């Protein structure tokens, strides 16, 4: 995705040509970038050779999941729907990990029937339910214990999962007690220790702290785990400021793996899919103000809620570059009847006119999956570009369908 002769291209197709074919707003993905991201992730961790389970919650489009599965990855799921979709797409049960604090009996029952690799347990009550179900089926279920390492990932509070005040995982002492209590069960086998400390992490320091806690835990626990699941959370560079150092993390994980003689599971989502997509939108109105102009787009917070929900900033660029700069600050907003329906404030942006096309970058992760029908607005179309070809991978809803 880049400019050629001042026109923004997605692979070999200019955005303006895409807009002639598809109604804005719509999500557009680059197949080449997705394949390249997976290749680079594998390369960074080639010494450790972890089981890489893509975080389905970050993007659950079936066509994209099929590409990810065809690259040899497994799946990390957090609901019955995600599990069923992963199986339908073709992920092997032996490469599926089921996480989440609120798995129901029906979800656990289905996961046990499908003999997936792991169910990561987050409470003693959940473990008791698994034991009850496995006794009825006379089966042995592989489980992981999710440890809450009480590590602050220094990320957005709403997506931090490894602090003691967060709902995820078990406290250090509680996890040890539960393992000691159930380690001789004929119904479950403690196959994995799982940790996950948050999302959009841009420093290796939280991972180093997490590994120190895990090492301490392994010294005190009375079972040998075949797997250590370090979750995901590796961030991407949304604002051209800071990139995550994958090589440094890979080196640390490789040392950990050798020291503890265990296999590693990683659950990337954003770092695989985040920068593969853009949200293409049209300027409906320019509402002039004394100090700034409101650029009112046809995309709203129902299409991309991350800025409203997390104060996340997605860079906005024009489809066609121009040397004419606006003297005012631009406030890019949507049409939704909410003050929080705004994307970004920018100075020194090029001068825009009503009807111009703009592009919101890096929306592949937690973009479409968090979209909604708020204000009875249809959810947008998803399109994938493969060199010079386009494919609709999710149709736009119609208002008729909603009504």
Describe this structure in words.
This protein has 403 residues and is of the alpha/beta class. It has two domains: 2-29 and 274-402, Lyase, Ornithine Decarboxylase, Chain A, domain 1 (Beta Barrel); 31-272, Alanine racemase (TIM Barrel, Alpha-Beta Barrel). Helices cover 29% and strands 24% of the residues. The strands form three sheets. Strands 4, 13, 14, 15, 16, 17, 18, 19 and 20 form a nine-stranded mixed sheet that branches. A hairpin with a 2-residue loop joins strand 2 (7-10) and strand 3 (13-14). The relative contact order is 0.16.
Overall helicity: 25-40%
- Number of alpha- plus pi-helical segments: 12
Number of domains: 2
What is the radius of gyration computed over CA atoms, rounded to a whole number of angstroms? 23 Å
What's the CATH first level of the largest domain?
Answer: Alpha Beta
CATH fold-type name of the largest domain: TIM Barrel
What's the architecture of the largest domain in CATH terms?
Answer: Alpha-Beta Barrel
Shape: elongated
**CATH superfamily heading of the largest domain:** Alanine racemase
Low-pLDDT runs of 5+ residues are: none
Report strand %.
15-25%
Q: How far apart, in Å, are the first and last alpha carbons? A: 37 Å
Average of pLDDT: 94
Which structural category fits the helices and strands?
Answer: alpha/beta
Total DSSP E strands: 20
Question: Main sheet?
Answer: 9 strands, mixed
């Amino acid at each position: 995705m880049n400019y050629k002769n001042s026109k923004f291209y997605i692979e070999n197709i200019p955005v303006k040509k895409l807009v002639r074919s598809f109604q804005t707003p719509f999500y557009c993905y680059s197949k080449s970038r997705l394949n390249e991201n997976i290749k680079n992730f594998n390369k960074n961790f080639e010494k450790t050779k972890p089981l890489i389970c893509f975080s389905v919650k970050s993007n659950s489009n079936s066509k994209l999941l099929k590409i990810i599965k065809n690259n040899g990855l497994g799946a990390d799921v957090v609901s019955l729907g995600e599990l069923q979709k992963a199986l339908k797409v073709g992920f092997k049960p032996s490469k599926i990990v089921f996480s989440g604090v609120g798995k129901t009996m029906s979800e656990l029952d289905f996961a046990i029937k499908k003999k997936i690799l792991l169910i990561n347990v987050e409470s003693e009550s959940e473990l008791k339910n698994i034991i009850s179900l496995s006794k009825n089926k006379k089966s042995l279920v592989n489980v992981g214990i999710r440890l809450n390492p009480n590590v602050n990932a220094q990320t957005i509070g709403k997506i931090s999962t490894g602090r003691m005040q967060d709902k995820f995982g078990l406290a250090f002492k509680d996890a040890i007690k539960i393992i000691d209590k159930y380690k001789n069960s004929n119904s479950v086998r403690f196959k994995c220790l799982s940790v996950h400390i948050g999302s959009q992490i841009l420093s290796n320091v939280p991972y180093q702290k997490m590994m120190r806690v895990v090492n301490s835990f392994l010294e005190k626990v009375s079972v040998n785990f075949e797997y250590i699941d370090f979750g995901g959370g590796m961030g991407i560079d949304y604002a051209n400021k800071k990139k995550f150092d994958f090589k440094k993390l890979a080196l640390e994980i490789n040392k950990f793996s050798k020291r503890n003689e265990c296999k590693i599971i990683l659950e990337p989502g954003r770092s695989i899919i985040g920068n593969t997509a853009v949200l293409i939108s049209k300027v409906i109105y320019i509402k002039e103000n004394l100090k700034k102009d409101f650029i009112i787009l046809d995309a709203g917070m129902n299409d991309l809620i991350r800025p409203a929900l997390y104060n996340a900033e997605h860079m906005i660029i024009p489809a066609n570059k121009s040397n004419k700069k606006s003297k005012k600050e631009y406030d890019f907003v949507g049409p939704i009847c909410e003050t929080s329906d705004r994307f970004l404030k920018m100075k020194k942006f090029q001068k825009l006119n009503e009807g111009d096309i703009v592009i919101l970058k890096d929306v592949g992760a937690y973009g479409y999956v968090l979209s909604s029908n708020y204000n009875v607005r249809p959810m947008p179309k998803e399109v994938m570009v493969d060199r010079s070809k386009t494919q609709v991978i999710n149709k736009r809803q119609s208002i008729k369908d909603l009504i």
